[in-house]
Structures are given as structure tokens and as C-alpha cells.
From TrEMBL:
Gene3D superfamilies: Glutaredoxin, Tetratricopeptide repeat domain. Residues 1-127 form the Thioredoxin domain. InterPro entries: Thioredoxin-like_sf (IPR036249), Thioredoxin_CS (IPR017937), Thioredoxin_domain (IPR013766), TPR-like_helical_dom_sf (IPR011990). SUPFAM superfamilies: Thioredoxin-like, TPR-like. Pfam families: Thioredoxin (PF00085), TPR_19 (PF14559), TPR_20 (PF14561). It comes from Azospirillum oleiclasticum. Keywords: Disulfide bond, Electron transport, Redox-active center, Transport. This is Co-chaperone YbbN. The keyword Disulfide bond applies. PANTHER family: GEO12009P1.
Length: 311
């Protein structure tokens, strides 16, 4: 059997480490991973003997798991010898690492990672696995992490996390809406529409999905906005050119500059609240629906809008 260089993964070492690190198979996956994860998070490392990055990752992740002193476990699966589980999880390249808790995948990554990131990955699992509420807290953390990645522009990672959650819970509203937002961020508007149309009946009136639909509507509305530099120049020439300022707001929104977009719409309301049948105020309301009622920008902008309208 293949051994990572400088790693102690033979039977004696495994026994001494209280089975913190073990070799898994398709046959033992249910016991080694799914059932074991009812107690502590279990990390699954999919590898193969010919994989160079696997050799780099193996010792690092084993060291970090052992350092966690039983708070997490590691199961290594040779995909050459045991391909079935990897195929079910749609593993396309290795090394691929999945973390399971309470019988479902909750986190993961692909490719060799530096030791600092591996430690952070395991620390997160240790913290969440030991937190009160266990399963719910870990799911909430996964959702929070996905949103953080999406907000930071890392659409691929966010979609991967949302996808893992949906694989375990197809009707998880937050994850479903999050995946729609990933498609919107990737400008895959047609696919986002299909996903909204195909949403489970239980999600039909969900507020997160409604907000995602509003985000899609605004994104489609904004995609034809003119070039930002030209619109900024037009506004600079005539500060009461409300149509140019409105178009600038939409172009800024399309470019991901949310705060700048709402500021331009607020300026129109400040200068002429009745312009275009209160078009700027109505567009702000659409933004609020897209952002969601608890988004800090929604709360902040509502305050500003109220101070303008009722001064």
C-alpha cells in the first residue's frame, strides 16, 4: 500500500492515534465517514498513488488532524482502488478533500493547499463540531462562508459550498437562493431564470428566493447601461441630467459598485424626487428587494431616503 513520505500511516501508528487517520474503502465509507461524522467532523481525502499534489497534501493534513487530538478524523480513499464514492460526489480532480458532519458534506476544497490554510480549515471544523447545536451551527457557518465568498467575488467557491449543501438538503432555501445569486454574479441569467422556475414548491414564497429573483431582475435591467466614464462625464457637465445619473447608477450596480449606485439614485431623489414618476425612489425599492431587508446597505439607504423625503 502506498505511504506518504515521512508519514506514519501503518496499522500500528493508526492504532496509536486512536484511528484518527485511517484508509477507507467504498465498502466502509458508511461506517468510517457517515456514521462516524455523527460524533465529530470527518475529513475525506481522495487521492491516488500517481498524484504528485496528493503526496504534498497528505502529510500536512495528517499532521493537522493529529494535532486536533480527536476533534476531527481523517479517512483517506485511494480513488484508483475505490472509485465509487468519488464518482458519487462528482470528484473530477485530486486531491479532493471533503468534510462531513452529521452525515453530510459541509465543506471542502480541491488541490494541494499550504499548511496555514489546512490548519484554518481544520480549526473551523473543530470549532463548529464542538459548538452547541452542532449540526445547525455548522450548516449556518457553511452558509455564512458561502455568502462571504460570493460577496468577495469568489463565485466558484461559493457555488461549490452551496452545491454541497443542496446535495444534502435540496430544499434549503438559503442555499438555493445563494446558488441563484452565484449564477447572476456569473452573468448566467438564463440559467438563473431556469433555476428560479424549477424551484421546489416549498420555496415558492421564500423571502431569500424572492430577493434573488429581484436581484436577477435588476441585473438584467442594468446589463444594458452605458459605459461608466461617459455617464460620469455627462453628469459632471449637467448635474441635473437625471437620466444620465440614473443610467450611471445602473451601470455602477452592474459593475458591482452597490454603494455608489444607491448614492446616485439618492442624489436624484434629493434634486427632484418626482422625476420620471419617482423613478429613482422606485429603483431604490427594487435595490432593497434585491439586497434583502437585513442587508446593511438596505438599512443604511432606507434611513438616508427617509431623511430626504421627510425633511
Amino acid at each position: 500500500m502506498f505511504s506518504f513520505p515521512n508519514s506514519k500511516n501503518g496499522p500500528a501508528a493508526a492504532g496509536a492515534a486512536s484511528d484518527l487517520v485511517k484508509d477507507g474503502t467504498d465498502r466502509t465509507f458508511m461506517a468510517d465517514v457517515i456514521e462516524a461524522s455523527r460524533t465529530v467532523p470527518v475529513i475525506v481525502d481522495f487521492w491516488a498513488p500517481w498524484c504528485g499534489p496528493c503526496k504534498q497534501l497528505g502529510p500536512i493534513i495528517e499532521k493537522a488532524v493529529r494535532a486536533a487530538k480527536g476533534a476531527v478524523k481523517l479517512v483517506k480513499i485511494d480513488t484508483d482502488q475505490h472509485p465509487m464514492i468519488a464518482q458519487q460526489l462528482r470528484v473530477q480532480s485530486i486531491p479532493a478533500v471533503y468534510a462531513f458532519f452529521q452525515g453530510r458534506p459541509v465543506d471542502g476544497f480541491v488541490g494541494a493547499q499550504p499548511e496555514s490554510q489546512i490548519k484554518a480549515f481544520i480549526d473551523r471544523l473543530v470549532k463548529l463540531g464542538g459548538a452547541a447545536g452542532g449540526e445547525g451551527d455548522l450548516l449556518e457557518d457553511a452558509l455564512a462562508q458561502a455568502k462571504e465568498m460570493l460577496d468577495a467575488g469568489d463565485v466558484a467557491t461559493a457555488a461549490d459550498i452551496y452545491g454541497q449543501i443542496l446535495e444534502a438538503e435540496p430544499e434549503n432555501a438559503a442555499a438555493y437562493a445563494g446558488m441563484v445569486r452565484c449564477l447572476i454574479a456569473a452573468k448566467e441569467y438564463a440559467q438563473a431564470k431556469r433555476m428560479i422556475a424549477d424551484a421546489p414548491a416549498s420555496l415558492a414564497k421564500d423571502k431569500d428566493l424572492a430577493a434573488a429573483k429581484s436581484a436577477l431582475d435588476v441585473a438584467e435591467q442594468a446589463q444594458n447601461a452605458g459605459p461608466i466614464p461617459e455617464l460620469m462625464e455627462a453628469v459632471a457637465r449637467d448635474k441635473d441630467n437625471h437620466q444620465a445619473r440614473f443610467d450611471l447608477a445602473m451601470a455602477l450596480f452592474a459593475a458591482g459598485k452597490r454603494e455608489a449606485a444607491v448614492d446616485e439614485l439618492l442624489e436624484i431623489v434629493r434634486r427632484d424626487r418626482a422625476w420620471n414618476d419617482e423613478g429613482a425612489r422606485k429603483q431604490l425599492v427594487k435595490f432593497f428587494e434585491a439586497f434583502g431587508p437585513t442587508d446593511p446597505l438596505t438599512i443604511q439607504t432606507r434611513r438616508k431616503l427617509s431623511s430626504i423625503l421627510f425633511r
